[in-house]
Every structure is written in structure tokens, then in C-alpha cells.
Amino acid sequence: MTRLPPRLVPDGPDADDPPAAQGVVTRAYGDTLSLLDQVIALEADGISGLETLFAEVIDGRDGLMLPGFGAPGLPAPEVARLDHEIRRRIDVLVARGRNDGSVVSTIRTTDVVVLLSLLAQGLPEYPGYEAAATAIALRFVESVATGVRPPLSAC
User: Fold this and answer.
1) For 95-122, what is each residue's pLDDT tens digit?
2) Which residue, 78, 81, 83, is CA-closest to 36?
3) What are the pLDDT digits (tens) for 37-88?
4) How far apart are CA 51 and CA 46, in angstroms?
5) What's the rounded Cα separation, in Å, for the pair 53 and 58?
6) Which of 78, 51, 76, 71 is nearest to 144 (CA)?
């Protein structure tokens, strides 16, 4: 059985048993989809939406589930469906940025998904992780933004 990412492990000796794992993973997917819906609802330009999304994922990574983690306790078709829903919502933000001209046309949803997944996993043994993750997110945002933008101070 695939183990839960350490940051999602609930307390207790049965944390990796299918019912506990399924509940944690289901809640984490729900929280991730809810976060994406909130960012989309802001109706900000595409680059601002991505910037907000990166900041929120870094801040809330302990309770989020993004593609690439695996999902113990859930059947593979359900994981595929939920991962697709996440990608679909991220595609809304990417498409918004392409349409409003705030991001380069070469940005792909996959680029954003992979970076979000890596940022959400975290490095629990690295005390400077939050600052490093924020710096990486800022570099990504700066690299896909079009036009003149003020320097980004934080995600």
C-alpha cells in the first residue's frame, strides 16, 4: 500500500489503514479543490491568480493533495478523477492568463501542476523551506509574466 505523505498522516496507530487514509486523502482533495475554486472566483488577471495560488499552496500545504502524491485508500479511478478536476481548475487560471495577456503563451497547465505539487510536498527537515518555496514560486511567476510588472516581494 502506498503510504500517506508524512504531512498528511493523522494521529494514531491506524493512520495508514484504508479507512483513515481514505478520509484524510478525501478531505485533502476537497480542500485543494475548494482553494482552487476560491482563487478562480477572485477573477483576478491570470498572473495574479497564479501568484495567489502559489502563496496559498505554500501556506496550506499541510492539508492539500495535489497530483503526484499518490492517494492511499482511494481507488485509482477516483484518484484520476480528482487529479483531473484539479488540472481542469488550474487550466482555468492558465487560460485566463493567456487570454488577458498577463502570462506567456507557452505556459502549460502541467508546468503549474508540477510546481504546485513539489511546493506542497515540502521538506520537513529544512527549516528555511517556506522562504525557499516562496522564492521558487516568485521566480516562476516572474518567468511567465508578460509586460512590465513591479518586482514581486512575496507570493
Assistant:
1) 999 999 999 999 999 999 999 988 888 7
2) 83
3) 999 999 999 999 999 999 999 999 888 887 766 566 678 888 889 999 999 9
4) 9
5) 9
6) 51
* Residue 40 burial (10 A CB sphere; 0-12, 13-18, 19+): middle
Dihedral angle sign, alpha carbons of residues 137, 142, 146, 149: positive
| Residues 103/147, Cβ–Cβ less than 8 Å | no
85 Cβ neighbours under 8 A, 6+ residues apart: 33
Grid cell listed for 28: 485533502
pTM assigned to the model: 0.81
Strands (DSSP E) contained in 13-108 are none
Grid cell, residue 144, equals: 511567465
C-alpha cell at 78: 477516483
